[in-house]
Amino acid sequence: MIELLEPPRLTVPSTALKTSYLVGEQADMRHRGSDTSWLTAASLDFDAFVAERTGVRERWGVASELFWFASGEYYVGSLVIRHELTDDEGGGHIGYHVVYPWQRQGHATRMLREALVKCAGLDIERALLTVAPENAASIAVVRRNGGVEDSLNDEGEMRFWIDTASA
Ligand SMILES: CC(C)(COP(=O)(O)OP(=O)(O)OC[C@H]1O[C@@H](n2cnc3c(N)ncnc32)[C@H](O)[C@@H]1OP(=O)(O)O)[C@@H](O)C(=O)NCCC(=O)NCCS
Fold first, then answer.
1. Which of 10, 18, 96, 145 lies 20 to 30 A from 106 at CA?
2. Which atom of ligand 1 is nearest to the CA of 132?
3. Residues 144-160: what's their mean pLDDT?
4. Domain ranges of the chain
5. Taking residues 81-85, what's their average pLDDT?
6. Of residues 128, 125, 104, 134, the one with CA closest to residue 167
């Protein structure tokens, strides 16, 4: 296994992570059987790809910010924080993924914990997480971070609330 010299942290997207990001995402997309075509443009102009994803931006009709979870030159995963909920609450406040080569090493659990601290700093007192019922890994991650189950949403996803002050 690769030894990380320091624990990964949430960081702003960075061109310095180009190789690790592209290879990690390609491995993850192929493992999931997902479309990899978006990686072509990203690999041809990574500076533009990063610039388009940096800072607080209006997405899904609300202010949102993307972070990468990384240690040194290693990209581990991505996480988005929506500063407020969309009208249908779709996706909740926080969405994330850990790329396949780095899964099952506790990274998502730690990444979400760090995001909850950021949410507290944004005055989000209770963060909403929505998870498909069949996504056992994400349900475990949310429960390990104190997620309290609420009713299902209209898409049949599980809704969890996390008190960010306890993060
Ligand atoms: C969900 C996801 C982020 C978990 O990332 P991760 O870094 O592997 O999570 P952790 O290592 O913190 O795992 C937490 C626990 O979930 C459980 N888990 C992890 N992967 C699992 C799997 N494939 N099947 C069942 N349980 C799993 C385990 O209990 C694990 O702890 P353990 O390995 O010590 O037993 C990752 O699988 C992923 O990116 N999936 C695709 C995108 C996604 O589902 N995002 C969340 C949308 S709500």
1. 18
2. 48
3. 97
4. 9-166
5. 98
6. 125
What is the Å distance from ligand 1's center to 35 Cα? 21
Distance 104 CA to ligand 1 centre (A): 6
- The helix/strand/coil state of 125 is coil
Dihedral (Cα; 42, 17, 141, 59), 10-degree rounding:
-40
- Topology of the domain covering 9-166: Aminopeptidase (3.40.630)
Give the list of residues 6+ apart from residue 154 with CB closer than 8 angstroms, or none.
88
Q: Which residues of 127-140 are buried (b: 16+ CB within 10 A; e: fewer)?
A: bbbbbeeeeeebbe
If you average pLDDT over every residue of the chain, what do you get? 97
Q: Which residues contact 99 (CB under 8 A, 6 or more apart)?
A: 24, 25, 27, 28, 75, 76, 77
